Structure formats: C-alpha cells, structure tokens
C-alpha cells in the first residue's frame, strides 16, 4: 500500500527516482499507476494545524488491487505532535461493492495543544 498526500513530498518507494510531490498530486498518482498499481481510494482528509485551524488535504491510496487484503486490515496514520490518529479499514477499500460510509472506522482527532 502506498499513501500519497497533498500535504507531503517524498521519493517513490518503488523506484526511488520519482518524487511524489505534494505540488503535483496528479503527476504523482499517474507515476504510481505507471508502476501497475491500482488506485484504491481518493478522498479528502481533514485534520487540524498547530493553531487548531482546520487543514484539508487530498489523499490517495494505491495497491495491487488483485487480491483481498488478509494480513493487514487497517491503515493508521498518527500525528506525532498531538497524537491524533486516523484509522481506515483497508478491507473496505479493497471491496468495490462497499458503499456504506457508516461501516468505516472513524476517529476524530483531538485539537492539538
């Protein structure tokens, strides 16, 4: 699973050559598609910045998409400064028939100190 966000930049973990750049989100997504990965999810993530203001970013999750996930069943992203955690079920992301948003595990982050 590879997570891409408009909030961060890093090198591609598959080839190490291409930058997954927050300023060029579409190009980053197309680069991962070029590696043969499938886009499993695109959405918006809302968190809070250091001052407690809402901060919104676009995220995408890529993977093989060829088999249902078995060993890893959730993605957890934790904010180091405030300890807020975002958790999503990866099994739900890999099942194209899931449409009920209430079935996802959502935890709302606390306002950072």
For the termini, the CA-CA separation is 31 Å
Main β-sheet description: 3 strands, antiparallel
Task: Tell me the strand percentage band.
Answer: 25-35%
- Low-pLDDT segments, ≥5 res: 94-109
Main β-sheet, spatial strand arrangement: 1-5-4
User: Rg from C-alpha positions?
Assistant: 15 Å
Order of H and E elements: EEEHEEEEH
Level of helix content?
10-25%
Specify the overall morphology: globular
Mean pLDDT: 75
Strand pairing plus helix content: what structural class?
A: mainly beta
The strand count comes to: 7
Number of distinct helices:
2
Question: What report would you give on this structure?
Answer:
This protein has 113 residues and is mainly beta. The chain has two helices and seven strands; from the N terminus they run βββαββββα. The chain has helices spanning 25-34, 90-94; strands at 2-5, 10-11, 19-20, 38-48, 54-63, 74-78, 85-89. The strands form three sheets. A three-stranded antiparallel beta sheet has the order 1-5-4, with helices on one face. A two-stranded antiparallel ribbon has the order 2-3. A hairpin with a 5-residue loop joins strand 4 (38-48) and strand 5. The termini are far apart.
List the topology elements:
Elements: E1 2-5, E2 10-11, E3 19-20, H1 25-34, E4 38-48, E5 54-63, E6 74-78, E7 85-89, H2 90-94
Antiparallel strand pairs: 1-5, 2-3, 4-5, 6-7
Name its key features.
globular, mainly beta, 113 residues, two-stranded antiparallel sheet, 2 helices
Give a brief rundown of this model.
The chain has 113 residues and is mostly beta strands. The chain has helices at 25-34, 90-94, and strands at 2-5, 10-11, 19-20, 38-48, 54-63, 74-78, 85-89. Strand 2 and strand 3 form a beta hairpin.
